[in-house]
Amino acid sequence: MLATGHLYAQQVYKSIDKNGRVTYSEVPPLPGSGDKLTGESAANTPLPYALQQIVSRYPVTLYTTADCAPCINARLMLTQRGVPFTERTVSSNEDIDAYKKLNGDTSMPLGTIASQQLKGYEETEWTKYLDAAGYPKSSTLPRNYRNPAATSLTPKKAVDKSDKEAAEKPVSARDARPASAPQEPNNNPTGIKF
User: In terms of pTM, does the model score above 0.70?
Assistant: First the structure.
C-alpha cells in the first residue's frame, strides 16, 4: 500500500525568486522568470516514461576533451535532439590510459549507445544509431531538464589531510631511518601486520 502511494506522488519543484523568496509548486518556474530551481528538483527532473524506457535500455555516454570541435558538435547535437546523456572527460594521464583501454586509440569524441561505439563525430551516423535505439527525433525533455555535469573518466583519489601534511613536511636527518634499520618489535600477539 505504501509503494502504490509513492507511484502517484507528483514532482514538487523548489525554486527561489530574485528577491530570495522560496516557492514550492507542482509546476516548474517559467523560462525567463529569473526563478532558479534548487535542491533535488534542479537535479532530478523526471523524464517522460517512454524516454525513461529507451534510456534504461540504450544509455548514451559521450567521451570528450577540452578544445575539441567535434566534441562540441556531438554535445550540441545530443542536446538539441533531447537525448539524455552522460559526459565523461579525458584530461589527465590516467584518463588517457583508461580511454585507450576503452577505445583502442585516442580519437575524439567517442559516443556509446549501450555497447555500440561511435568513433569520431559524423552527424548522419550518430542520427542513424539514435533512431535505431528509438530516441525521439526532436526533444521530449521537460523544460527544466539538465544533463548531469561532465565528470572525469577516472575517479580522482581523495587525498587524506594527514597524508598531504606528511608529504609536505620536510624530513630531518634525525627523523630519517636508514633502509637497513631493524624493525621495531611487534607487540601484537596475533602476528597481524598492517
Answer: no
